[in-house]
Amino acid sequence: MNIESIMGELITLLIMALALGMDAFSVGLGMGLIKLKIKQIFYIGIIIGVFHIVMPLMGMMIGKLLSDTFGTIATLLGGGLLILLGMQMIFASFNKDDEPLITPVGFGLFVFALSVSLDSFSVGLSLGIYGTKTILTVIIFGLVSMVLTWFGLLVGKHVQNWIGSYSEALGGSILLAFGIKLIFPF
């Protein structure tokens, strides 16, 4: 393999990682609009990065065995989870007496990470069929997603101060819209 083909493959993987990581950025932006501490933001980014390693790795392994149908199901599940998270945040913003049903802590963080990494599973299925370099691919996907999650959460945290009490409803709207976009690509 020559240097040009290696660089071409790296650039392709970086572009794919950025595309997949934009989910994490967008959802991080929405989730950053709720009150989070810097320590929570750090852990959320790490967990999202780990999920963006594990999910495409599983997809690549299964992709050698299955068809594209399973990837479509994963995308629909991810969209459904984001819609539920977004609706919950919107409703919670109007009812300030209740704690949000799902927050990016504990089980909520698991649901959050799963929802933004299901598309990585789908991509992993395709990459598994084509025989991409597994370790390099998942490390790039994980690192890029982690950094983009941190960036989205920090931007959301900063914007939260500007828009005050409407920030949680706006964050929920972002998650809801992104979930709808996953299910109904337009």
UniProtKB/TrEMBL annotation:
Keyword Disulfide bond part of the UniProt annotation: no
GO CC term, one of those recorded: plasma membrane
Location in the cell: Cell membrane
Swiss-Prot/TrEMBL keywords: Cell membrane, Ion transport, Manganese, Membrane, Transmembrane, Transmembrane helix, Transport
Membrane topology: Multi-pass membrane protein
Transmembrane segments: 6-29, 41-63, 69-94, 106-129, 135-154, 166-184
Listed GO MF terms: manganese ion transmembrane transporter activity
Described purpose of this protein according to its UniProt entry: Probably functions as a manganese efflux pump.
Family note: Belongs to the MntP (TC 9.B.29) family.
PANTHER family: MANGANESE EFFLUX PUMP MNTP-RELATED (PTHR35529:SF1)
Record-given protein name: Putative manganese efflux pump MntP
Species classification: Bacteria, Bacillati, Bacillota, Bacilli, Bacillales
